[in-house]
Amino acid sequence: MKKGPLDHPRARAVGGTWGRLVPLAVLAAAVVAPAGGAWAASGPAPATGGTLANVPVPAAMAQACAATSGPVCQDAVVGAIDRARAREGVRPMVLPTGFDHLSAVAQLLVLADLERTDRGLPGFPGLSSALDHAAAVAASRAADPVGPPGTTWGANMAVGYPTALQADYAWMYDDGPGSPNLACSAAHPAGCWGHRRNILGDYGPDPSMGAAVRVNGPAGTGYVTMTQLFVGQPAGPLALRLPSLRRG
Question: Is pLDDT larger for residue 160 or for residue 24?
């Protein structure tokens, strides 16, 4: 049975610029179930079979990214990701050559693929033109994207994270109890790890993805919104093919 997006409060950033926004929140992840069964997603249990613990943003990462989103911040985020992955028995993340020269939207695709393929899950061939459009419409409204009717889909949104790497860290490793995930609380534990489940979800043999990055609000005082949309259907025409993942 199809389920609609979860209701959640909307977060807003006030002040700042594209590269210097303070992360506010990763908002509730929207999920839809395929007809006749529960939503099929790989859960948050790590490869080692233990209990996944939330890993808040380390002080070193926060300090490195406080004033810039450049190489120093990127290295700090990747280091934090690697330490969080080590707790799960997952190998370190190796960014492809030229990652820092990709658009933020392309980086969202690459990171989703790395999170999946490094865990033995199928990646995405690229970004679907149709799903990119749906993700962009949602990002412009600071809302969760919505997947096509009759499909299995998952959608993520983050507000106030200036880089794709920082959003990925929040979605994948800082999404449990005590995290900025507004859908996760002691009263609503089912919302914990929802973004992670969406990224690592089972979307069948032909998964497709869309993504968008928007700056909403007045020029110079806007807030960054990033969205991802994962769907269990062939991608169709691609707006972007997956860049080479040659490890750099």
Answer: 160
